Amino acid sequence: MARNEKEAVDVVLVGAGIMSATLAVLLKELDPSLKLEIVELMESGAVESSNPWNNAGTGHAGLCELNYTPQATDGSIDITKAVLINSQFEVSKQFWSYLMDKGGLGSPRSFINPVPHLSFVRGAKDIDFLKKRFDALSAHHAFATMEYSEDRGTLSEWMPLMMPGRPEDEAIAATRVESGTDVNFGALTKELLNYLSTLDGAKVTYNQKVKGVERNGEGWSVEIQDTKQGGSRELSARFVFLGAGGGALPLLQMSGIPEGKGFGGFPVSGQWLRCDNPEVVAKHQAKVYSQAEVGAPPMSVPHLDTRVVDGKKSLLFGPYAGFSTKFLKNGSFLDLPLSVRPSNIGPMLAVARDNLDLTRYLVKEVMQSMEQRLDALRKFYPELDPADWRLEVAGQRVQIIKKDEKKGGILQFGTELVAAEDGTIAALLGASPGASVTVSIMLQLIERCFPEQVASAAWMSKLQEMFPAREKTLQDNAELYREISARCNQRLQLDEPVSA
Question: What is the top-level taxon of the source organism (predicted)?
């Protein structure tokens, strides 16, 4: 393509992961006349955090993740975050079901499978916490099917791989929600990108490196270099979405919007132990979460997961945290130092000062031997055979560092939507639970950046068609929650058993 060739579109989305793919499809469903393009640095979509081997803890619905239900000093359990994430996952299921009805997605088994979600604890203190958590959650209609047990016979049925070899006097307990899922967001992303390719005015281009993002009247000019064919071009757009995972922060800084000043990134890499031995895999049909170590980031909560990728089951255990200055798995070691700005160096130094536990934890994780990693797995699976497990490097996560009036800066886990005041550009920063609540996050973006269109009769009607109930309604209306959830489960074939 000729250098500096210019083209005008309505929307440019940077990064061909689950976030951009979801937003692009939502916008085209709301306004089929929109002209949009997704530009991706790699040779295909879903290479970074959306890749199934880079985001092991998928299918987050607040059912088993203990860090979503913190315990207050008075001993009470706050279930607010778990209920919110559960309702957001149900919103995601509504969108996928809507696309299934349209023929926009292939077989649901290609990206979502039923896998029970369990929380597992050891010792009197954690058992007391788990029981209180169960009492609090099971009283809410979204968690009414949750079961609790300390009975070893019951636990052997729930976790047949994890019980043999365990000391008889070990105090253990677990909760289970049978209706949990495993989601392959890489496969889902590719389904969405394929669907987009069938729509007029939608395009996905690869090997595209964004070199500049600048104001252009009421919109933006995006300078793009073709890394394979050479040459560059310029896209003019009324709206730009920076959905490049860990790479979104440098792009946000490139835009120069005041709302992006003060943000920094703390990259954390992950490693997993993976098992593909069919005999072992067949004995564990669950995602089992436990308590994180003191000082560990929420994304490092240990869990032993069933994964279903391309129709084949595997087990993953971890994560084991690591540190790299890259913002993307395929990024540069200069990503972190080049992200330092006068506006964010203060918050970044404050976070370094206030998170010594995290620093010590990361150093300890990086220095671990394979045997030490296996010892952590033995707390879940006492009779493991080391020959069945191999170490794999997962994707990069860039946790958010932001300004704080009291502390100077805080390390924020989760996701944050950063948008310009005029709504013409937005970036998504952060990580978990990310992919599982993508649809809710992208709906928030649409409401913030397209307020006039959202208020129109056409968009309101279409949104109601796609989403019969949003988060607040799902949280408050038990009957409607059960009705819509059952309908989605049927459409996504989640009420049918998955083959071994």
Answer: Bacteria
Q: Collapsing DSSP states into helix, strand and coil, what is residue 108?
A: helix
Ranges of each domain in the chain: 264-408
Q: pLDDT tens digits, residue range 312-355?
A: 999 999 888 777 788 777 888 877 787 888 888 888 888 778 87
Compute the distance between CA of residue 206 and CA of residue 222 in angstroms, rounded to an integer.
Answer: 15
How far apart CA 470 and CA 467 sit, in angstroms, is: 6
Cα–Cα nearest to 121, from 382, 380, 381: 380
Supply angle C-alpha 81, 82, 88, rounded to 5. 90
pTM recorded for the entire structure: 0.92
Q: For residue 95, give the nearest of 13, 35, 25, 33 by alpha carbon.
A: 25
Euclidean distance between CA atoms 359 and 339, whole angstroms: 20
Largest CA distance in the chain: 73
Query: pLDDT band at 295, cuts 50/70/90?
Result: low
Return d(Cα 414, Cα 403) in angstroms, integer: 16
Residue 316's H or E segment, with its range, is strand 312-322
pLDDT (tens digit per residue) in 248-266: 889 999 999 999 998 888 8
pLDDT higher than 90, residue 498: no
Residue 400 CA to residue 410 CA, distance in Å, equals 8
Q: Residue with structure tokens 């308590």?
A: 291
* Rounded CA separation 78/83 (Å): 10
Q: Which residue has the tokens 């009420």?
A: 495
Q: Which residue has the tokens 């809710």?
A: 440
179 C-beta neighbours (distance < 10 Å), count: 18
Given a contact cutoff of 8 angstroms between Cβ atoms, the answer to whether 440 and 20 are in contact is no
Dig out the tokens for 357 from the structure.
């536990």
Give the β-pairing of 389-404 and 147-149: unpaired
